[in-house]
Amino acid sequence: MAKITIKKIAHDLKLAVSTVSKALSDSHEIGTDTKQRVLDYANQMNYVRNAYASSLKNSRTGNIAVVIPEVADSFFALAINGIETIAQEKKSHVLIYLTQENQAKEKSIMEDFRNGRVDGILISVAGGNTSYPHIRDLQERNIPIVFFDRVAQGVTSPRVVTDDFESGYKATHHLLEKGCKRIDFLSLSGNLSIIDARLEGYKKAISDRGESASRSHVIVCTNDNVHNENILASLLERKENRPDGIIASVEKLTLITYTVCTRLGISIPDEMKVVGFTSLPSAALLQPSLTTITQPAFEIGQTAAKLLFELLEKKSKQSPNKMVLLPSLLHERGSTQIKT
Amino acid sequence: MAKITIKKIAHDLKLAVSTVSKALSDSHEIGTDTKQRVLDYANQMNYVRNAYASSLKNSRTGNIAVVIPEVADSFFALAINGIETIAQEKKSHVLIYLTQENQAKEKSIMEDFRNGRVDGILISVAGGNTSYPHIRDLQERNIPIVFFDRVAQGVTSPRVVTDDFESGYKATHHLLEKGCKRIDFLSLSGNLSIIDARLEGYKKAISDRGESASRSHVIVCTNDNVHNENILASLLERKENRPDGIIASVEKLTLITYTVCTRLGISIPDEMKVVGFTSLPSAALLQPSLTTITQPAFEIGQTAAKLLFELLEKKSKQSPNKMVLLPSLLHERGSTQIKT
Q: d(Cα B157, Cα B146) in Å, to the nearest integer?
């Protein structure tokens, strides 16, 4: 395929090379008619601009990055779908990067953005971080960053979150109302904003009930599912002091709770009531159907993407303290039903 | 932050600008000692190369693209995890692009790759395509492409697939063995290689049984879940000629089958037996647990990524007919159990 250059287009249309170049960049210096003529001819000739070359001149790449811990989680899958609807309107490409809940990987990905690969970043941070130099570094370079769901604690940037404290409270209160005497909170190791807030809500609900939330009721899980199953099995195999209620603070811990209860022959909800933080489409179809705290994942993605494009289009700084809070809902189902 | 340029590094180290530039590009023209001196100093000064500028000179971007219809599907979520393990070894970034099962979007994404955004592409094509000029175009530009799972029919490129025909056969044979008299096949509209093969397997199993596979037993669904629920509900509400077995050829149709049966009070497996093509982690936890055809999603992703890096590293053409076939497994569970 013969390569069509700006020079060739300029020659064929009897225009200056600079005129063609400016027309192709949609410069205000060029009249509409000329612009249209150049674009029509370029399309006709199947002319392709070099993205990198034009990126050097324009400051935009047409890409936004979505940096998330994993895709095998319904919250992120739905949030991505929300982000996509907005990006499509803006004719931007969404590039999804996975940190695999690994801080070093998150750092490496973010460092790569220093070089101008993307216009802006939507991020839900990996667990385990205690400081965020890689995020501050991009902020210093004026690359817009919007947090969604999991925010970097101590870093000021626009954010879209849900009411994690209230949800933790609601889930615990619900289990107490259903008669649970000992409720264990399955947490995820790392320094995650969302888990911390859910845990605080749990503790508050317990203490509001006049009981003290001893640390022993918080079970810290990791990203190793086999390890988590073992922790949970040793907890549930106990004869004494076994929980009769579990709050699974992230989706994967919900499914593990079901798996371990099934394996050990512990009946949900008769012997164990379960509330899971999840947007799983199959929640209502599980055996028994699962009571969930469901985040508005799609809307969180959409709202975060809108905030990012506002930052990009104004080319001015939005209030860095901007926070949008979208509430989660408790869906009561079979896993917390009282025996009749 | 003061900008560190190649010129500044050259000045400080008393080297020619071209020497520094070549050292940073790891050119064989520069000796190891000098290279190390330049790299150490550049790191010390926190020097960042402009990705676009260096991409113009080098031919590699360090990015590979994964183009898939959606992420809210366990097959793709697991395949991505497989791809990530290989990309991490190769220190490549994985950029995930979603076509949302939309041919125009797939075309637009692929056109964008003409400009050199990525080194190579792993793709599972969107439904609805009947020809693939956007893929052939990239092939002509020598951008390596590996298909995984859903291949572009009629396009020659390395591919990693599963035994869809055999799986369709196996699923149908299993339902026949369990006594089903009328098995309906839930298909997805579009020209999808995987669905076509699964359907052929289904037809063959029916005809091997001495029955004829009339077209009426194939229910063509779309990407609109509400529409699919309505189609399925009107099928299952019938008093006469209702199927007693269903093969859901993709994951989302499996969950819809469960939802509609629950709503209509049709008991699975007593009145309706179900086999779903899915890698859902919750399959064993559904009510009842789901008999599945499970693809080796993680391995498919890994293998496809390995093939792509072989193409990239050899910088030579691998056999374009290369095909790796990884078999799927039938997991028998509650949804196809015979009443005892």
A: 6
Measured in angstroms, the CA of A222 and the nearest CA of chain B are apart by 18
- The CA distance from B241 to B31, in Å, is 79
Q: Number of CB pairs < 8 Å for A and B?
A: 132
A282 to chain B, closest Cα gap in Å: 7
Nearest to B278 by CA among B203, B335, B205, B339: B335
Bridging pattern class, strands B245-248 and B183-188: parallel
Nearest CA in chain B to A105: B88
Same CATH fold assignment for domains B6-57 and B164-294: no
Inter-residue contact B105 to B76 (CB < 8 Å): no
Domain ranges (residues) in chain A: 6-57, 63-162+297-327, 164-294
| Phi and psi at residue A205, to the nearest 5° | -65, -40
Q: Is the predicted pLDDT of residue B340 greater than 80, yes or no?
A: no
Task: Find the Cα–Cα–Cα–Cα dihedral B280, B281, B284, B286, rounded to 10°.
Answer: -70
Task: Tell me the whole-structure pTM to 2 decimals.
Answer: 0.81
| Token digits of residue A125 | 């941070």
Strand order in the sheet with B218-221: B218-221, B183-188, B245-248, B273-277, B291-294, B329-331
Rg (CA), chain A: 25
Interface check for B90 against chain A (CB to CB < 8 A): the answer is no
Whether B77 sits inside 8 A of A80 (CB atoms) is: no
Q: Please check the confidence at residue B270 and state whether its pLDDT lies above 90.
A: yes
Structure tokens at B90: 């190769």
Domain A63-162+297-327, CATH homologous superfamily name and number: Response regulator (3.40.50.2300)
Mean pLDDT of B122-131: 90
| Cβ-Cβ contacts under 8 Å for A132 (sequence gap 6 or more) | A125, A152, A154, A155
**In angstroms, what is the C-alpha Rg of chain B?**
26
Contact of A281 with chain B, judged by CB distance below 8 Å, is answered with: yes
List, in sequence order, every residue forming a beta bridge with A65; answer none if it has no partner: A95, A121
On whether any CB of chain A is under 8 Å from the CB of B104, the answer is: no
Question: Which architecture characterizes domain A6-57 according to CATH?
Answer: Orthogonal Bundle (1.10)
Which residue positions in chain A have pLDDT lower than 70?
Answer: 1-3, 26, 28, 48-59, 212-216, 315-318
Are B94 and A97 a contacting pair at CB < 8 A?
Answer: yes
